[in-house]
Amino acid sequence: MAWVESLQRAIDYMEDHLSEDITIEEIAKQAHSSPFHFQRTFTLLTDITIGDYLRRRRLSLAAKELTGTDTKIIDLACKYGYDTPEAFSKAFRKQHGVTPTEARKGIGKLQFYNRLVIQVSLKGAEPVKYHIVEREAFQVVGVKRAFSCENGQNLEGIPKMWQEVHQNGVNDLLFRVNSGQIKGVLGVCVDQSAVRPEEMDYWIATECDQEVPEGLEKLDIPASKWAVFEVRGPMPDAMQSAWKRIFSEWFPSSGYEYTGTAELEVYTDEDPSSPDLYSEIWIPVK
């Protein structure tokens, strides 16, 4: 449960510094995690980004002070990180549906978001199917793109990248040059936050033990122990559900730890809408 405790420690840190300008690097440090991995895990478990959480909590506390004290609106704007009363008013209205002035007069209903408390659910009724694989280093080839993890920009950009490779023929090419142990096309997440803060490289690739085909790039995957999870069901819901169960149920109880190297999603050429579609998630562990 050390992983859960680390995550809660990071959340508590955010709560203790809501009126300060804190960075994702400082938050992730509390969980002994890279900014990329912490943001990815946080979003998987909560369905919101860290930026969204901070904004919701700050505006919730601002609403509480606004209706319970005589603090000036301009002072609340400054306290909760807004440069001008106008920017504060705009964000306040977006969350609460009323302006700060209207809220102070008792007009409308405010939306208050409580602080997060991590509670692990060890259900066990529906098993998480996985096996452990140890592999030497191998090569994948494909196309890559850098994405910012800030405010979930990667969550918007990656689906668009998949649409492009299906339209421009790259997806078909990858299936043709697939010649490794892993059969299918891969979505590969590579943490780059150590050299490019809050950034990741995303590859759409395939395992290939031959020369790099023209128009593609090469990525070397290091030797690792992998937890390989079975995913059943239509995309993208089945994949998203599997990721959430892995981090909310499997990791807290398995005894394994995430090692921080590349993560793989394995897709076949079957009908992506099929309820029996088989896919995999490969996570490097120790």
From TrEMBL:
Tell me the keywords, alphabetical order: DNA-binding, Transcription, Transcription regulation
| Residue ranges of every copy of the HTH araC/xylS-type domain listed in the record | 8-106
> PROSITE patterns under this entry?
HTH_ARAC_FAMILY_1, HTH_ARAC_FAMILY_2
Entries under InterPro entries matching the protein: AraC_E-bd, Cass2, Homeodomain-like_sf, HTH_AraC, HTH_AraC-typ_CS, MarA-like, Reg_factor_effector_dom_sf, Tscrpt_reg_AraC-type_HTH
**GO MF term list:** DNA-binding transcription factor activity; sequence-specific DNA binding
Q: Which domain of life is it from?
A: Bacteria
Q: Know the name of this protein?
A: AraC family transcriptional regulator
- The scientific name of the source species is Paenibacillus rhizosphaerae
